[in-house]
């Protein structure tokens, strides 16, 4: 994700939640000051461990704070949860949702924004090109609404896994549709409406209400200014143990080796570099130096849809 409301979220050990709003487009000087080149937001830090990619962030929150975990307890439910995560992101739902944005959005008149999004996606954000892609995108989004209405939600269940309250499976499935419904003009009423998809609209409405209820009862974060957020992170200790490198990993990388890592689906021109400290089937962790006091930070990337390779003398080695 990469939007106007995304943040640096800092979670110091049992102290509280801090956040810091980031600009809609680059440069994002606060993230750069941390030594992080990853260009998508949000990112999350727990101490000097910095987590990139919403999927990894959710995984870490579920793991580190099990008392509030929303993930499914049963293997078959976990499978549905994982499939829905893949459907919305890797299956193209989010890409099609982004292509459905209305061309009268004020930001599309800002050349800095459109240039930034072209760098982010690798495609043109000219209004004419967006308008040309909208019919195809809306066709795919309508098909997704049909799947939800006549498949996943067809039996009238309140939540995806028939739970008493929303679970992580609901979050994985609902967010692109929730976003589109809040984006005025994105979905033409003649194609997608409450009358055509009553179960989907009711589900999204329940989710929106549940989020509002959770917000009202949750601890209020302290909003930090940029320099404060950077100082807060760099003066903390590392949160996780260092970890190790899986000797059986197909990449054949070694602990302490200089590497670079980056996403390959979007934001792929921005590579994080540093010394490899941990490599598992799910995560790559490298140490980079912040620009504040020369203190190292650990940057965590997921493995799925990311590429990691050795670098030597400033050049990548295949």
From TrEMBL:
Listed transmembrane segments: none
InterPro entries for the chain: DUF7962 (IPR058268), Glutathione-S-Trfase_C-like (IPR010987), Glutathione-S-Trfase_C_sf (IPR036282)
Superkingdom of the organism of origin: Eukaryota
Residues covered by the GST C-terminal domain: 74-233
Name of the protein in question: GST C-terminal domain-containing protein
